[in-house]
Amino acid sequence: MKSGSNLEKVLTAGQFAVTGECGPPRSAHADEVRHKAQHLKGMVDSVNVTDNQTSVVRMSSLAGSLILRQEGLEPNMQMVCRDRNRIAMQSDVMGAYALGVRNLLCLSGDHQKFGDHPEAKNVFDLDSIQLIQTVRQLRDERKLLSGQEMPEGHEPRMFIGAAVNPFADPFAFRVHRLAKKIAAGVDFVQTQCIYNMPKFREYMKQAVDMGLHEKCFILAGITPMKSLGMARYMSKFVPGMDVPDDIINRVKAADKKDQAKVGIEMAVEQIQEMKEIPGVAGVHIMAIEWEERVPEIVKAAGLLPRPQV
Amino acid sequence: MIVAERKPIEEILDMVKDFKKILVVGCKGCVTVCNAGGTKEVGILASILRLARDKENNPLEVDELTLERQCDPEYIEQLDGKAGDYDGILSMACSIGPQYISSRFPKSLVYPTLNTNFLGGSLEHGVWAEFCQACGNCKIHLFGGLCPIARCSKSLLNGPCGGSSDGKCEISKDVDCVWHLIVEKLMEQGRMDMLTGVKPIKDWSTSRDGGPRKIIREDLKL
Description:
The structure holds two protein chains of two kinds. Chain A is of the alpha/beta class. Helices cover about 40% and strands about 15% of the residues of chain A. Chain A has one domain (about 5-300): TIM Barrel, CATH 3.20.20.220. Chain A has helices at about 5-10, 30-40, 60-70, 85-100, 130-140, 170-185, 195-210, 230-235, 245-255, 260-275, 295-300, and strands at about 15-20, 45-50, 75-80, 105, 160-165, 190-195, 215-220, 280-285. The two termini of chain A are about 15 Å apart. The model of chain A has no long low-confidence stretch (mean pLDDT about 95). Chain B is an alpha/beta fold. Chain B folds into two domains: about 1-115, Response regulator (Rossmann fold); about 135-205, no CATH class. In chain B, about 25% of the residues lie in helices and about 25% in strands. Chain B is elongated and about 65 Å long. The two termini of chain B are about 25 Å apart. The interface of A and B includes residues 168 and 177 of A.
């Protein structure tokens, strides 16, 4: 075991893993995190805590992660390169580990142009791949980037994650970028929300042909559509998102009051398909501001009870 | 070259609102090439200022002068004996010019009329783009001859990120994803190996992050 996190144990035991997501509030209101946590408890193996996603200022991912721990859930703390330099990132990784965080998801981060502070200065001292490499060095070599060593047993032993987007361009390079993240030291990856299943299958085939699924755990990203409006928004405005017309048409065909139900049905079907795709080790369910619907998705997909390992 | 553009005229008029006599100083270097602060632009700005103030029945006397460069003390010296004649001196150079003038004439009020934007080049007539961030340690040969530090919105050394779509950057459809260009070029050249290796963490100490920079060439010093 690298970190001994629940997520690592589930994946290593060969179980089909389920992760969830929790976006901290745009305030200091801890109960909002606790409330979201209650919906996910017992439903998922680990919960991503986003780090100022879409560059909108929120409660820190470290604080959100600790609140989840208090509630008995395992956090997967996200960390972006946009807002911190190598000094702050190493410091936060050690601090998070000291406080009980065992999974760390390394991301470049959305550009601040999308957020509520477009006039901010960004950092990008490291990129996501270099952050992976850094966290691995802290863990496996017990060394900071400066070369400073940590005594044995004092190093942060994180289960290292990353995001991959099989649908961004250039498509031919995408699987090689996954290979790069593996070379840097990633243990698991979660994909961008998947709607284009044929393209995802093609991506997975490439990954399996290169043997990448044996070097890191690949979790497929699932985001249920709440409405036609959301489907259209995802298709048009979210960078790197691929929403085929047949998905939009299926939501459109339903009465407005039934669109959410159809969205959930589609997510459940997708999860069933994911279980059969070679190389897929689990699913990452990103029910954006819709955490209360996760239990029914997980249940309908036959993923309960979650394994105790 | 350094690419700059003129500030909005309202901002410049506000700078000189209390003055009766000013000097507008152009530069024959980069800002002439990028049509922002050469002899021609000095003439245009001077005319606009005079006309605007005539309209308010508050005439402004504007003298014009364009120096060879404003980033060398020897050219700034040409203002010796003149600088004191003006209520204000408006530089049409990049921000280096007004700093040199301010430094040589401590009593003068000196104003920048350009916004200094980036190190770049022209793409077509009337269009300029950023190509360099002056990081002080050039590695473009590792990226198909293209600079990801200046041209990727996140300065990624191991791109492209998940926001690259149809060859464009996630921040705008008007911005090319330089990583898309790098990948295509290296793939075409059959140099895939240059893309698959993890590019190491960059030492930013040669960049502005290391503090204000200076080059000393002992062989050239007098």
